[in-house]
Amino acid sequence: MSASPALTIVDLDDPVTPPNEHDSFGGVIVAITTSGSMHHGSVADRWAQRASFTITDHDTDDRRLIRVDSIDDTLARVRATVSANPVAAQICEDVLRTTLPGTGIRPGLTTESLAYSTLQAGPEFARWLAGKGRCAFHEQDDAVLLDRLGNVLTITFNRPDRHNAFSNALRAGLIDGLNVALTDESITSIVFTGNGRSFCSGGDLVEFGLLNDPADAHLARTRHSPALLLDAVRVRLGAALEAHVHGAVLGSGLEMAAYCGTVIARSDAVFGLPELRLGLIPGAGGTVSIPRRIGRWRTSYLAMSGLRVGAETALSWGLIDDVVEPGRSASC
Q: Could you confirm whether 139 is annotated as catalytic?
């Protein structure tokens, strides 16, 4: 075992001591193993359960384990990400351990947003913000398109020149569309998609830093939350709330798509959570929506490594429900 204040590495092929399962604030714990399975109840199994995630070079069906091509290379990437922003990494891990499936969406979103606001006021985000350049609001009247055909409502992000980077204008348009879906009971199916080369590349970084008060930002996130509305629509429509995604499905784009009852990805789609490099954590409800689909461990891996996974891996994890080739889906 090796440890730093923010990151602990545990070798499950030779675990010396069992984990301290009463330590709720143990930072980021990454386990490594050359095995693809754990003997139930063993010390290694208990570490895999306690760890943020476990990396292995073997195929595995264990959702606590992530199969990688190189354990050493992946571990180096995680070390670099965590050491660059150790506070954000530890807070992200705390939130993921708190907002477990079954927590409920409102408590989960509140916890996530309070943590996000804490980091907005911290030195890691301030350092990134100081080097990012200009701040400006995105203004566009048709940032989100709503199209009704029979009982099907299509909600389309329409900012193709920026890979549908999620701005306040897109947020407002998405909220309008979801409110239509909730109030009009004749709508029985929704397709949520994006124009251009990507579904959504994540938050619009040009707008970051425009809200100076983290407390006000928290209220804006929780009182005007597309995540709450997406979840409410999913409760009403189930699998008939479909996200059709392609290209970059990153950050808030992935977080929102994961709320949908069905996620269909084009084969060129890539998925990831890059927020830690900004000194932040997922802030569009992803600490609730993504673990529902793939568990806490694989969600933590995406956040702590900053790596992206392709459509086939996303399908095998359960992050998406189907993969189609370009041209097979008119909505993608």
A: no
The model's pTM: 0.94
Task: Note the pLDDT of residue 184.
Answer: 95
Distance from C-alpha of 311 to C-alpha of 140, rounded to nearest angstrom:
31
Q: How far apart are CA 165 and CA 160, in angstroms?
A: 9
> What is residue 3's predicted lDDT score, i.e. its pLDDT?
61
The strand pairing partners of 144, in sequence order, are: 157
Check residue 99 and give its pLDDT.
86
Give Dmax (Cα) for the chain. 63
Residue 332, pLDDT score: 40
Using DSSP's 3-state secondary structure scheme, residue 25 falls into coil
Alpha carbons 85 and 216: distance in angstroms, whole number: 24
Which domains, ranges and CATH numbers included, belong to the chain? 2-84 (no CATH), 105-278+309-324 (3.90.226.10)
Q: Compute the distance between CA of residue 144 and CA of residue 168 in angstroms, rounded to an integer.
A: 11
Question: Please, are residues 197 and 165 in contact by the beta-carbon 8 Å criterion?
Answer: no
Closest CA to 49 of 269, 307, 300: 300
Contact 326, 332 (CB under 8 A): yes
93 is catalytic: no
At 331 the pLDDT is 45
Residue 182: which of 243, 220, 228 has the closest Cα?
Answer: 228
Convert 291-329 to b/e letters by CB count within 10 Å (16 or more is b).
Answer: bbbbbbbbbbbbbbbbbbbebebbbebebbbebbeeeeb
Secondary structure class of 2 (helix, strand, coil): strand
Rounded Cα distance, 67 and 55, in Å: 6
HSE value, Cβ hemisphere, 13 Å, CA-based, for 311: 18
Annotated active-site residue in 112, 255, 312, 325:
255
pLDDT averaged over every residue in the chain? 93
User: Residue 326 has which token pair?
Assistant: 């370009």
Q: Which residues of the chain have pLDDT under 50?
A: 329-332
93, 207, 242, 275: which one is catalytic?
275
